[in-house]
Amino acid sequence: MINKLSKIQSAQISNNIPTIINSSLPVIIKVLEQTRFNRYNIKFGTKTISTTSYKDLEVGSEYYANIGSQSGGMISINSLTKREIIKPVLDDGVALIEMVASSQNLSWLIPYIKSKMANPISKDEFSIYADMIMALNENILHIPFYYDNRSALIQILLGKNPKIYLIFSLFAPIIISIKDGKIRLVSSPYVSLSKALADELGCEFEIKQVSPLWQKTVIKATI
Questions:
Q1: Residue 91 half-sphere exposure, CB side, CA atoms within 13 Å?
Q2: pTM higher than 0.70
Q3: What is the DSSP string of 85-137?
Q4: What is the Cβ-side half-sphere exposure of residue 211, based on CA atoms within 13 angstroms?
Q5: Burial bucket for residue 80 (CB in 10 Å: 0-12, 13-18, 19+)
Q6: How far is CA 28 from the centre of its chain?
Q7: 195, 150, 190, 156: which is closest to 173 by C-alpha?
Q8: Domains in the chain, ordered, with CATH?
Q9: How far apart are CA 64 and CA 77, in angstroms?
């Protein structure tokens, strides 16, 4: 499944700017500056353009967005979703995902995580495995990993009918729903992305905002 997603991602990344405009797959834009009340200079690919946004954008941040062409050569940008940087990640995260995928049950997983926490390679690795333990307390498997030298995150809601949240650093987030052992539904905020993945995976799709299945709770102490 990850290989199929990667094929679509690679095709998207290899596009040049004119192809991106003709394509409806989401791309990544960076907000360079705000020039007026609702006008911004943004960068996508190697191009910098000026555009109007009726949604407040954060200067310096990156967003997934649909880019299309309108009459008169105008460029339209819509369906903006803020891009979050995935870090830190496990160097051997893909190997762990493969171990999980090939297992009949996951009784080995918590002892495996605890052994890794007892002998961490780094502070980041310890932190990731600690997050995994907390996520598993909510029945969610959480693995940040490298794929094709890019950061990614997979989260799986465990149970009879699993759900999979997946995001690559250059790929807008999606949720894949599985029922009776088969992929039944792909959910994302983007019509074209959902349809492309549904065609690849042989399932239905829906358009909706998606969020991680589990997020770390940050507790702020006051003194």
A1: 7
A2: yes
A3: P--S-BTTHHHHHHHHHT-S--TTHHHHHHHHHHS-SSHHHHHHHHHHHHHHT
A4: 3
A5: middle
A6: 12
A7: 190
A8: 14-82 (2.40.50), 93-207 (no CATH)
A9: 10
Q: Over the range 53-63, which residues count as b (16 or more CB within 10 Å of their CB) and which as e?
A: beeebeeeebb
The residue type found at 142 is H
- Residue 190 sits at φ, ψ, to 5 deg, of -120, 125
SS3 at position 194:
helix
pLDDT above 70: percentage of residues in the chain: 83
Task: Examine the pLDDT at 13 and tell me if it is beyond 50.
Answer: no
Ordered strands of the 182-188 beta sheet: 140-147, 150-157, 163-168, 171-179, 182-188, 204-207
Confidence of residue 78 (pLDDT cuts 50, 70, 90): confident
Q: Where are the alpha helices (DSSP H) in the chain?
A: 2-14, 17-22, 93-101, 109-118, 123-136, 191-201
Amino acid at 71: S
Q: Taking 70 as the threshold, does the pLDDT of residue 9 lie above it?
A: no
